[in-house]
Design a protein that fits this description.
Layout (H helix, E strand, L loop, with lengths): L5 H10 L6 E4 L9 H7 L5 E5 L4 H7 L4 E6 L4 H15 L3 E5 L3 H13 L3 E5 L2 H8 L7 E5 L7 H11 L6 E6 L6 H8 L3 E4 L4 H26 L7 E2 H18 L3 E8 L2 H8 L1 H18 L5 E6 L2 E6 L4 H17 L2 E3 L2 E3 L3 E8 L4 H16 L6 E3 L1
Parallel strand pairs: 1-2, 2-3, 4-5, 4-6, 6-7, 7-8, 9-11, 15-16
Antiparallel strand pairs: 10-12, 10-15, 11-12, 13-14
Helix pairs in contact: 1-2, 6-7, 11-12, 12-13
Length: about 375
């Protein structure tokens, strides 16, 4: 990657219509007054501006353009830039609810958020906001005014926190009130952040991004706690948390489900012959094949070592047989090429279909099927 000049950027924009993000240095050899920003933002390309010097007049002029962030080239500049890029890539899936009874203020704030490429929904007061939150949309952040009819910001924040935790849904409060204690009150009842009106647009963008970054960090921490480090699949802990809920629902609905236990045949031979690095590749290949041949709604987890477990809903017993017969054959025919080395292996699959008394009982039945496979030639499927 190399830095383009102003003239080179003109040529690039002539031939490339699919630019997702631009990182713009104000001070280019052939463009020293920020002309590059006008050139790129006029093409409606989201942009992050970086600069090595502080120019208040230039900064103020940039506030009115379609920029995502304004970053100084200081000791923390690279980290800020990386975080801004990460947030931008997530922005297309980020839903924000904006609550304000002032039409003018609501439209102004909405314009800033839209320029940041967020999906923005609006409500004119707290009551309407709660109705929107109860829709089937997963919101990341609520930005609300304080003084509103029907239900003010304080009551709205309290109502939201009855249902949503701070690490699941962020709340940013905007207020023109001159009460110095108001921000403290809002933080105590559950707001994540507070900004006084009138706000500086750049400060507002930074605060929105900071709050979202914290929420994304919480999400990543939860993912890591529930994720198998080697394969990226769910781990045993997450499987039992989710599968027990699915099992309880299946019992209420009187609907059959399927548990499948997978195990790599003669996995110890792979480790002993080729080493644990190759063994890890073999394990990751199981995750790849299962993810490729199962539905998104199917729950897949690595239980440990070379053992995997799958839970399937809304599938007949005949289709279970067809599916896992096909998957078994995929493993049988699969060859992993690692430089000059070619390795292959088979799997044994134990199955339980229907509804036992508990989820653990179903896993035990599937384990019995797996045990049968291991003791009767491997490379097969069997019901326990």
């Amino acid at each position: 990657m190399r830095k383009l000049s102003y003239k080179e950027t003109i040529e690039l924009l002539k031939h490339n219509k699919n630019i997702t993000l631009a990182i713009l240095d104000i001070n280019l050899p052939d463009s020293t007054q920020g002309e590059i920003v006008d050139l790129v933002t006029q093409k409606n390309i989201p942009s992050i501006v970086i600069t090595g010097f502080e120019n208040k007049e230039l900064k103020e002029s940039l506030l009115h353009k379609k920029i995502i962030n304004y970053i100084y080239k200081d000791h923390d500049g690279i980290n800020q830039l990386v975080n801004s890029i990460r947030l931008h890539l997530k922005s297309f899936r980020t839903n924000i609810l904006l609550v304000d009874d002032s039409r003018t203020q609501l439209e102004a704030t909405k314009h800033i958020l839209k320029n940041m490429n967020f999906n923005v929904f609006t409500a004119k007061d707290g009551l309407e906001a709660l109705r929107v939150l109860n829709s089937h949309i997963d919101f990341n952040l609520v930005i609300t005014d304080y003084n509103m009819p029907c239900m003010d910001g304080l009551e709205l924040v309290s109502k939201i926190r009855e249902k949503y935790q701070k690490d699941k849904l962020g709340i940013l409060v905007l207020s023109a009130s001159d009460k110095p204690e108001l921000s403290e009150i809002f933080i105590k009842i559950g707001a994540n952040d507070f900004i006084n009106k009138p706000y500086n647009p750049i400060e507002f963008q930074v605060r929105v991004n900071s709050n979202l970054e914290i929420l994304y960090l919480f999400d990543r921490t939860r993912d890591l706690a529930n994720e198998d480090f080697l394969t990226g699949l769910h781990n045993r802990r997450f499987f039992f948390e989710s599968a027990n809920a699915i099992f309880s629902k299946a019992q209420r609905d009187k609907k059959d489900i399927c548990i499948a236990m997978f195990d790599i045949d003669k996995f110890k031979n792979i480790n002993d012959t080729y080493g644990h690095d190759i063994g890890d590749i073999a394990i990751k290949e199981v995750a790849h094949i299962l993810s490729s041949h199962l539905r998104e709604s199917d729950l897949i987890a690595r239980f440990g070592g070379e053992e995997f477990c799958v839970l399937l809903q809304d599938i007949s017993k005949d289709d279970v047989i067809k599916l896992f017969t096909k998957i078994r054959k995929v493993f049988e025919d699969n060859i992993i090429q690692i430089d000059d080395l070619s390795i292959s292996y088979t799997v044994s699959i134990g199955l339980c279909y229907g509804l036992e008394k508990t989820l653990e009982d179903m896993i035990k039945v599937a384990d019995n099927g797996l045990y049968y496979c291991k003791n009767n030639g491997r490379n097969q499927i069997a019901f326990g």
